[in-house]
Specification:
CATH class of the largest domain: Alpha Beta
Helix content: 10-25%
Distance between the termini: 38 Å
Radius of gyration: 17 Å
Strand content: 15-25%
Structural class: alpha+beta
Number of helices: 3
Number of strands: 4
Strand order of the largest sheet: 2-1-3-4
CATH architecture of the largest domain: 3-Layer(aba) Sandwich
C-alpha cells in the first residue's frame, strides 16, 4: 500500500469573478513509504501538489470522476482544517523552505522549538536542550 495515493486531483484558484487558475487537473500520484520523489514540471502545479499532499490545502471536491486522497491508508480528502492540522502534527511532518525558519536560530534549534517535536533528535554536543 502506498503512503500517499491520490487520484483525479483538481485544484482551482478563483482570483476574481472572471479570473480562474487551474493549478491541477486530473492528477494521479502514488508514493511508497520511504520513496524519494522528484517533481520536475514548472509553474504552480508542483507547489500546489506538495501543499495538497502535505495537507496545507484541500483539493477541489466536486470533481468527476470523484477524486481520492489517501495518506497512510487514511482517507484525508474531506478532512476539516483542524483535522488536517492534527494529521500533519502526528503521523507526518512538513518542513518548509528556509524562508519559514527563525533567523536567530539554527535549523535544528528551530525544529526543537516546535510543539510536539518527534522523539529522536536529542541534544547535540555543545548545545543546550
Amino acid at each position: 500500500m502506498a503512503f500517499l495515493e491520490a487520484q483525479n486531483l483538481h485544484k482551482t484558484y478563483r482570483l476574481s469573478r472572471h479570473n480562474v487558475v487551474r493549478a491541477l487537473c486530473e492528477v494521479d500520484v502514488s508514493v511508497e513509504a520511504g520513496e524519494m520523489v522528484g517533481i520536475y514540471r514548472t509553474a504552480c502545479d508542483k507547489s500546489t501538489l506538495i501543499h495538497i499532499g502535505g495537507l496545507l490545502h484541500s483539493p477541489d471536491k466536486n470533481t468527476y470522476p470523484p477524486m481520492s486522497l489517501m495518506i497512510d491508508g487514511i482517507d484525508v480528502a474531506g478532512l476539516s482544517d483542524r483535522a488536517r492540522t492534527q494529521m500533519r502534527a502526528k503521523p507526518m511532518g512538513f518542513v518548509f523552505q528556509g524562508f519559514n525558519m527563525l533567523f536567530a536560530m539554527t535549523a535544528l534549534e528551530t525544529l526543537r522549538s516546535l510543539p510536539n517535536m518527534p522523539a529522536g533528535l536529542g541534544t547535540m554536543p555543545g548545545r543546550r536542550p
